[in-house]
Amino acid sequence: MTADNAGAPDDMEVLLVHLADQGYADQVGSWMSPDVTNLPITGQELLRALPAESLNDLAAELNLSVQEYADYLAQELPALVDGLSPQGELPENQDDEDALWAFAVEEAGA
Questions:
Q1: pLDDT at residue 60 above 60?
Q2: What is the CATH number of the domain that holds 93?
């Protein structure tokens, strides 16, 4: 994830729905819920759940191996989603969502 993705909130929603559909609904739900501790996800789980082509492309952009990128994403994704959804859902206002997304990416150190 780079600052170039800052305007891609729909991608986050698609990602979360995809992860939930792949069997990680409990994790996604915990990240979205303000009242539940974030459940972890591993890099290996992300490698199994996400399209390899997407992971390969994003890893290459960051000069990381696919495994390194998946591990990084697994470490940062729960807090990132949690920060984007303080009320338990992703913001509907595009400007607010863009600002939150940019802040979360900056906080994640990307």
A1: yes
A2: 1.10.10.690
- In which residue are the tokens 């609904």 written? 25
Position of tokens 């802040």? Answer: 103
Q: In this structure, which amino acid lies at residue 37? A: T
Alpha-helix runs per DSSP H in 5-93: 9-19, 25-32, 43-49, 52-61, 66-84
Instruction: Name residue 79's amino acid.
Output: A
- Tally of domains in the chain: 1
Phi, psi dihedrals of residue 38, rounded to the nearest 5°:
-60, 125
Residue for token pair 């819920």? 33
Q: Residue 98 — very low, low, confident or very high, per pLDDT cuts 50/70/90?
A: low
